[in-house]
């Protein structure tokens, strides 16, 4: 048999097995044993309506909510992306200066020297669900003022939602902004 | 803490390399092994349906089969991309791909480059992701591994084997079983695996969010294991669905390095001298550590311009990074993905501090800091032969490699191969800068780096990018497509020709005067060959790009 015929038959076979059967079998197994993760770790409210995904950040414009990372795509999760600013890009510098000015206006009690860098930088995905614990704590005074909830109570909420490093040493400690805001909303409702 | 994580990661890489290498060498053995009892029936079925005759091929027949088979696969996948709108499993109604983009993407995945000028969420249907992309993510590294195994066989004076048999074995014995296991692990950690369309969420601040998902788990495992690197979703492994936490991040790093770090041991085992492989492994590890140290220093310092604004910057540079990985895991990932020529990213390389960007591009220019599955080791052995040749010149003896004389014919082929990479990078870069500078998104010195990075990534079959570049235009699609193709297949042909020429020669007996290639001294010679050749070729470009940018980054 010629090389071309062998190539064609082998290619189509592998396409079927490794392309289609493999992907579909994995989908079947996943839906069976890890249905929550396999469908995107979706969060439902009490009425069963999907309100987001644990893994995907959301846009919070209202200053009475905790705010997440800068996202040039405004957390539109049908896509993903960043503006890819180089360190020497002047547009990025302008954006950061604007963020700092906004911070000072909205958080008069917290000086810029306590503003962590993750709050004024665009995430890699534009969908980062997390901020650093420092970035959450720096927002506590503002949120306390706007919601009327005691600062201590909000700090306790942040601590509760702080996820330590994986296995104690891998990665960084994180606070999931969406989960924190859901808890904040529930606290307010009480 | 962060340094502990680094230490544990590197230790795991070290522990996995040798056993994996011995397994791979065993899996490709010509004679019957115990593995045949397990995989034999499945493979015999595939050989039968595929019409594969298990005869030994000459180097010419071997490389011809590889080229034909891979070309046919490119054609098949091109057709799928161009007709995906009419095919099933397209819940988000993705249109057919534009011709130059389909050309680029088909070559990109056949060459394990996985440069992506489209965004997965909107550019490909689920069917295309599965039967075109995932299919190629298996056959492309399998073809590279096959070429490398044949190259080593030739150097060792053994028959070259059969391309189809080797490609199938790479899949049945290595890629598919591991991909299945790791896919399940990734899904357990939070990676989606569904055929449902986007999820619609009604957010707590009263808006609506459409969330892209798909069969990502099965895609992710083979993407990393095969040093492919292309993302299911646009931002690749920076996306929380494609890399949900620090554990999935660690596993991805281990998968990317698994085959590349094992290959020197495969080589040592197959030529019957473990030391030959160990020397290369140690030399490459040293290069890797230097690269990693440089990147960590640069990234932890961060961007001096931003730091001068008086904010709290203990975290280092965070632009383009995800909080769950932080500076450390992002910096490590950027070095691993470029060293292993995978090209997956968990941080945006365009946003790296200039020196860290330099390390990423240097890893790809050298293409010898482990390198991708199979293709990497072939390049490394080419530099080893250059090292032997240079040493031979210095002492005035005909150089020998594994008992065979290296002569004019071999050196001519190797010189051609060596010169091809700089040509593939620098010539089109000059053209792009001259005629298409409008596609550059970051001005100044960084713009030059952006263009050079794209072609280096294409030529080295890495696939990461400085993604600010407006690269989905006919010019970029066609030129990088050609660069990827030549970057992959030219060296397969020339290096297999070298092995063919060497294997036809009589072995010369080893004497006291033979320059040994299994000593620490040879490790140094190898490193010198890599660094001298690399520095001479690319240093001017690096000075004008990342180095100039770093020097001008002043508050």
From TrEMBL, chain A:
Segments crossing the lipid bilayer: 12-34
Record localization: Cell membrane
A cellular component term, taken from the record's GO annotations: plasma membrane
Single GO MF annotation: P-type potassium transmembrane transporter activity
Topology in the lipid bilayer: Single-pass membrane protein
Keyword annotations from UniProtKB, A to Z: ATP-binding, Cell membrane, Ion transport, Membrane, Nucleotide-binding, Potassium, Potassium transport, Transmembrane, Transmembrane helix, Transport
InterPro entries hit by this protein: KdpC
Function description: Part of the high-affinity ATP-driven potassium transport (or Kdp) system, which catalyzes the hydrolysis of ATP coupled with the electrogenic transport of potassium into the cytoplasm. This subunit acts as a catalytic chaperone that increases the ATP-binding affinity of the ATP-hydrolyzing subunit KdpB by the formation of a transient KdpB/KdpC/ATP ternary complex.
PANTHER family membership: POTASSIUM-TRANSPORTING ATPASE C CHAIN (PTHR30042), POTASSIUM-TRANSPORTING ATPASE KDPC SUBUNIT (PTHR30042:SF2)
Family: Belongs to the KdpC family.
Record's subunit section: The system is composed of three essential subunits: KdpA, KdpB and KdpC.
Protein name, entry field: Potassium-transporting ATPase KdpC subunit
Organism the protein comes from: Cohnella lupini
Record lineage: Bacteria, Bacillati, Bacillota, Bacilli, Bacillales
From TrEMBL, chain B:
PANTHER family according to UniProt: POTASSIUM-TRANSPORTING ATPASE A CHAIN, POTASSIUM-TRANSPORTING ATPASE POTASSIUM-BINDING SUBUNIT
Transmembrane segments: 62-81, 130-152, 173-191, 246-267, 279-298, 369-390, 411-434, 475-499, 520-548
Compartments where found: Cell membrane
Family of this protein: Belongs to the KdpA family.
Pfam families attached to this UniProt entry: KdpA
GO cellular component, one term: plasma membrane
Keywords: Cell membrane, Ion transport, Membrane, Potassium, Potassium transport, Transmembrane, Transmembrane helix, Transport
Its job: Part of the high-affinity ATP-driven potassium transport (or Kdp) system, which catalyzes the hydrolysis of ATP coupled with the electrogenic transport of potassium into the cytoplasm. This subunit binds the extracellular potassium ions and delivers the ions to the membrane domain of KdpB through an intramembrane tunnel.
Protein name: Potassium-transporting ATPase potassium-binding subunit
Main location: membrane
Superkingdom, taxonomy of origin: Bacteria
Example of a GO MF term: potassium ion binding
Organism of origin: Cohnella lupini
Subunit record text: The system is composed of three essential subunits: KdpA, KdpB and KdpC.
Membrane-topology descriptor: Multi-pass membrane protein
Keyword Lipid biosynthesis appears in the UniProt entry: no
